[in-house]
Amino acid sequence: MFRGFYTAGSGMIAQQRKTEMLANNLANAKTPGFKAENSTIRSFPEMYMSSIETARIPTKNGFQMKGLSPAGSLSTGVYMQETIPSFVQGQLQETGLTTDVALIDGYLPTNETGTKGAVFFRLKNEDGREIYTKNGNFTIDPSGYLTNPTGHYVLNNKGSRIALQNDDIHITEEGVIMSDDKAVATLGIAFAQRPDALMKQGTGMFVTEDGENLPGAAGTQGVTYSMQQRYLESSNVDAASTMTDMLTAYRAFEANQKILQAYDRSMEKAVTEVGRVN
């Protein structure tokens, strides 16, 4: 009986976490460069149940021997193992701003697991480490440096900050920033051979698990990409599909809740009625 409480409870927790993940996806459906997360739900190892039986051996003393009789397996519940971002390219949306840049995937080789690589803009966080994003919604801060909306510095292909005099610039498909017909800098683009191994940090930003910087995409053989100025890559969240998944997760949560309530009523009856002494 108590195992049923834990099994239904684990199902409720897993569906609650899935609902929270889907709600976060839906909240960022309009966030440029946001990558929707997918969940993986797995079951705990099953328990093999056996019943103990006593067999009497036909001897003079009637010797008894205990044995096990298979009763079957018992599920012990489920859990949400992890969330994995989907790095499918989002649609391009025109903004008209000269500091907005969309990073367009070209040929990105796959690794040994069949996962397709991904390219990112290079940024620098507060502690000096590189972070990566697909959100090219940039602006120029009061000090004249190119930054993202959260204030992180945009890096060039040499890992340095990009200083600009004004926003009257032209950005080529290769990421070269031109000002007064002169090349000022080249946007730094990193390549992740296994993007599924990156960890999320904030909204739409990623860091490596070991803290090491990703290699430059321009120097990686076989990797191609391009950039489109005055455009942004939209979120790849499918709002309609996400709403459907949220309803499905809610129904699964509700079903586990009803099972838990049924167990609770059974336990209450066992305590108040079955155990009553007349």
TrEMBL record:
<keyword id="KW-0282">Flagellum</keyword>
<feature type="domain" description="Flagellar hook protein FlgE/F/G-like D1">
    <location>
        <begin position="116"/>
        <end position="177"/>
    </location>
</feature>
<dbReference type="GO" id="GO:0071978">
    <property type="term" value="P:bacterial-type flagellum-dependent swarming motility"/>
</dbReference>
<dbReference type="InterPro" id="IPR037925">
    <property type="entry name" value="FlgE/F/G-like"/>
</dbReference>
<protein>
    <submittedName>
        <fullName>Flagellar basal-body rod protein FlgG</fullName>
    </submittedName>
</protein>
<keyword id="KW-0975">Bacterial flagellum</keyword>
<dbReference type="InterPro" id="IPR053967">
    <property type="entry name" value="LlgE_F_G-like_D1"/>
</dbReference>
<comment type="similarity">
    <text>Belongs to the flagella basal body rod proteins family.</text>
</comment>
<dbReference type="GO" id="GO:0009425">
    <property type="term" value="C:bacterial-type flagellum basal body"/>
</dbReference>
<dbReference type="InterPro" id="IPR020013">
    <property type="entry name" value="Flagellar_FlgE/F/G"/>
</dbReference>
<feature type="domain" description="Flagellar basal body rod protein N-terminal">
    <location>
        <begin position="5"/>
        <end position="35"/>
    </location>
</feature>
<dbReference type="Pfam" id="PF00460">
    <property type="entry name" value="Flg_bb_rod"/>
</dbReference>
<dbReference type="Pfam" id="PF06429">
    <property type="entry name" value="Flg_bbr_C"/>
</dbReference>
<dbReference type="InterPro" id="IPR001444">
    <property type="entry name" value="Flag_bb_rod_N"/>
</dbReference>
<feature type="domain" description="Flagellar basal-body/hook protein C-terminal">
    <location>
        <begin position="228"/>
        <end position="271"/>
    </location>
</feature>
<dbReference type="Pfam" id="PF22692">
    <property type="entry name" value="LlgE_F_G_D1"/>
</dbReference>
<dbReference type="InterPro" id="IPR010930">
    <property type="entry name" value="Flg_bb/hook_C_dom"/>
</dbReference>
<keyword id="KW-0969">Cilium</keyword>
<keyword id="KW-0966">Cell projection</keyword>
